[in-house]
Amino acid sequence: MTTNKVIPLKERNIILTGFMGVGKTTIGQLIANKLYRDFIDVDQEIEKQHNMPVTEIFKSMGEKNFRQMEKDYIVDLCYNSRLKIVSLGGGAFMQEEIRAACLSTSIVFFLDLSWSSWKDRLHLIVDSRPVLQNKSLDDIESLFAARQHVYEINNSKISTDDSDPEEVADYIVRTLKLGWEMNDRSPFSQSF
Ligand SMILES: Nc1ncnc2c1ncn2[C@@H]1O[C@H](COP(=O)(O)OP(=O)(O)O)[C@@H](O)[C@H]1O
Ligand SMILES: O=C(O)C1=C[C@@H](OP(=O)(O)O)[C@@H](O)[C@H](O)C1
Ligand SMILES: [Mg+2]
Fold first, then answer.
1. Which of 7, 39, 42, 54 has the CB geometry, 3.0–4.6 Å to 32, for a possible disulfide?
2. ipTM value for the complex
3. Which own/partner contact pairs does 156-162 have at CB distance under 8 Å and 24+ positions apart?
4. For the chain, which residues make up each domain, given as ranges?
5. Where does the chain bind ATP (predicted)?
6. How far is the CA of 27 from the centre of ligand 1 (A)?
7. Annotated binding-site positions for ATP
8. Residue 186, pLDDT above cutoff 90
9. Which fold has domain 12-180?
10. Whose CA is nearest to atom 12 of ligand 2?
């Protein structure tokens, strides 16, 4: 474990959080390509471990087990890796232990999208997101609203309304490079 070591800013993992369908997986991969870093999508890693899609994991093992696997994977990743671009699943940040691990070791970006834009995207994702299945639009809106205040705990919030994934990824890369450059020039420290 690297728990007590202060991780230099440039080496910290970059973590994307936000509601299902906001673009974490798509944009994370683009950021990784632009920065020549490894990309880790937590859902895809859990799917590889179990050789089945998340929908099947929910069906055969239950959501509770999925949440445990998600927590174990992310906490380990946070404390034992650096320089990764990581896309979380949209429910991960609801677990306090995951939030604490992410915020103490990494740089967390919240990809925000308004409800009115989000609902136009529902048809793209509903079949592959078990949490959205058998729910009315009102139920989903309540879940969306309930989770927003948890995503608000982050290092940087990006509004993705009216931007395509390339634009969002470029914006995040520019923000990061600026932050790294300012940190390099700071007389106080290399890390915080
Ligand atoms: N900025 C965007 N504008 C339009 N469509 C997007 C945008 N970001 C993602 N999408 C689309 O939304 C869907 C969900 O994207 P995904 O990256 O899987 O989201 P998440 O990982 O947050 O659930 C995909 O079909 C993707 O192409
Ligand atoms: O919000 C959630 O509870 C979930 C989000 C999904 O990931 P995306 O946010 O990438 O869709 C996936 O982890 C699972 O279906 C549960
Ligand atoms: Mg995803």
1. 39
2. 0.99
3. 156/107, 156/108, 156/109, 156/110, 157/109, 157/110, 157/112, 158/109, 158/110, 158/111, 158/112, 159/112, 159/113, 160/22, 160/23, 160/27, 160/111, 160/112, 160/113, 161/113, 161/114, 161/117
4. 12-180
5. 21-26, 129
6. 8
7. 21-26, 129
8. no
9. Rossmann fold (3.40.50)
10. 89
